[in-house]
Amino acid sequence: MHLSDATWPEAEATDTDLAVLPVGSTEQHGPHAPLGTDSLTAAAVADAAETEYDDEVVVAPPIQVGVAEEHRDFAGTLWVSEDTFRDYVRETVASLAHHGWTRVVVVNGHGGNVDPLREVCARITRHDEADAWAFTWFDGVDAPDMGHGGPVETSLLQATHPDLVREDRLDDAADGGADGWGEWVSGVNLAYDTSEFSENGCVGDPGAGSQERGEQLLEEATTALLALLDRVAER
Fold first, then answer.
1. Residue range 5-30, pLDDT digits in tens
2. What is the C-alpha to C-alpha distance for residues 178 and 197, in angstroms, rounded to an integer?
3. How many angstroms separate the CA atoms of 46 and 225, rounded?
4. Which of 89, 175, 208, 223 has most Cβ atoms within 10 angstroms of its Cβ?
5. Residue among 205, 191, 207, 187 nearest 73 (CA)
6. Which residues contact residue 190 at a Cβ distance below 8 angstroms, ignoring those fewer than 6 apart?
7. CA of 69: how far to CAs of 25, 113, 136, 215, in Å?
8. What's the start-to-end Cα distance of the chain, in Å?
9. pLDDT tier at 137, thresholds 50, 70, 90
10. pLDDT exceeds cutoff 90 at 235
């Protein structure tokens, strides 16, 4: 059940303590992919898992602004501090728990959210009236070429939101993008902002992606999330 589509009596009638909270970001993804890429992909994985899950699970509305200051030099990027982000996630989980949804899997689509989500989910589980775990969809798939706005994210968008991918800009994205994330010397990344190493914000060649690969990625991510939901439900 999706909370955004349900009425309050329908929400009250649910017979589960399990919820999924999609979390993403609003940030640049090169000249070809939408600012909402991370939120769209996280929600797509959460939606697919809700459809395939054998039992009932509540899907909360996605959190669409995350820890993304590294993309600040590209127009449209929004961000909050790690403290604000952690507080927002924690209070959202607390409100879910107030209604009885006390086991919450946060489905994340943005790399900058990974560390603060790990910390806040541990804090929730240790100190609040809920248990929470963070699942980052691209960590649950075969994606060694992840990049940023590269073939992995672009493929998933081509499978789930093809109308939002600017196919005529894929070559430009690759030409003005970077091959890797940052400027590494002696194990230290000297770059804090994406604009320091990528002209257009892209990392990787999005033209190497495809709808077919996106469908496979969605299947892999969904399978991984379903396995996690099953284990969480057993705890």
1. 999 999 999 999 999 999 999 999 99
2. 7
3. 8
4. 89
5. 191
6. 182, 183, 184, 196
7. 11, 11, 19, 30
8. 22
9. very high
10. no
Report the mean per-residue pLDDT for the chain: 97
Exposure of 234 by Cβ count < 10 A (0-12 exposed, 13-18 middle, 19+ buried)? Answer: exposed
Q: Report the alpha-carbon distance of residue 20 to residue 38 in Å, rounded.
A: 16
pLDDT of residue 80: 98
* 26/40 Cα distance (integer angstroms): 10
| Rounded average pLDDT over 162-176 | 97
Q: Which amino acid is located at 141 in the chain?
A: V
SS (H, E, C) the chain: CEHHHCCHHHHHCCCCCEEEEEECCCCCECCCECCCHHHHHHHHHHHHHHHHCCCCCEECCCECCCCCHHHCCCCCCCCCCHHHHHHHHHHHHHHHHHCCCCEEEEEECCHHHHHHHHHHHHHHHHHCCCEEEEEEHHHCCCCCCCCECCHHHHHHHHHHCHHHCCHHHHHHHHHCCECCCCCEECCEECCCCHHHCCCCCCECCHHHCCHHHHHHHHHHHHHHHHHHHHHHHHC
Note whether 30 and 157 are within 8 A (CB).
no
CA 69 to CA 35: how far, in whole Å?
Answer: 14
**pTM assigned to the model:** 0.96
Yes or no: say if 208 and 177 are a contact pair by the CB < 8 Å rule: no
- Count other C-beta atoms under 10 Å from residue 183's C-beta: 12
Rounded Cα distance between 182 and 132, Å, is: 31
